[in-house]
């Protein structure tokens, strides 16, 4: 499909991708320039964080050593940041004053979620590939477990995640609340001001809290173990098509967390 997209066409790259239902980021994908061993380390740590969510740099260092890999503290810390691996533990409050205005309280405590588009959860995660990696942003409707929006990008830039939010709102309408962690993508001016203009309530996890964004965290585990780790992709387009096909199955599969209902049917029925 990538060969069908060209700069010589009268249509823009954006319009060509939209017509073919292809992510623009996947068209522009270039493998990240990390050595093979670093890519292997990142994938091992990405898997390990699901088994031990509190694993920090020293724990990862011990895990790697047990698997025959010797890596220094600074190297592991850099690769964890590159793979967006964030251990869960109480952290010191280090928010600088310039960013403090973009931090919002957690609004989901004891909230009774009774319908679709009441609460969305958004997050971004690292996706390993055969010769590099990309980042996946996804938004889950908490009531139905339906993925209302998702997208791939080459960077952790806030614009990529914001684009996913905008497309989800255009397609499904506005949620009452959207919850995220306090990552840089969600504590920046463009993200906050857009949601405020749309009159969407902003909720954010407390630092180091394991369960505040639990539904999207569970989704990461599911898609990685059922698709990503089993099917390492060569290109961005292959990854995009693979995730899209996997989601088609995911949405029409019964889920225990919603009384064996199917996310797509529940979302459409209640929308």
UniProtKB/TrEMBL annotation:
Pfam family, one: rve
Family annotation (PROSITE patterns): INTEGRASE (PS50994)
Residue ranges of every copy of the Integrase catalytic domain listed in the record: 101-271
BP GO annotations: DNA integration
Database matches in InterPro entries: Integrase_cat-core, RNaseH-like_sf, RNaseH_sf, Transpos_IS3, Transposase_IS3/IS150/IS904
Domain of life: Bacteria
GO function terms (MF aspect): nucleic acid binding
PANTHER family, per database record: INTEGRASE PROTEIN, TRANSPOSASE INSF FOR INSERTION SEQUENCE IS3B-RELATED
NCBIfam families: transpos_IS3
Name of the protein this chain belongs to: IS3 family transposase
Native species: Dyadobacter flavalbus
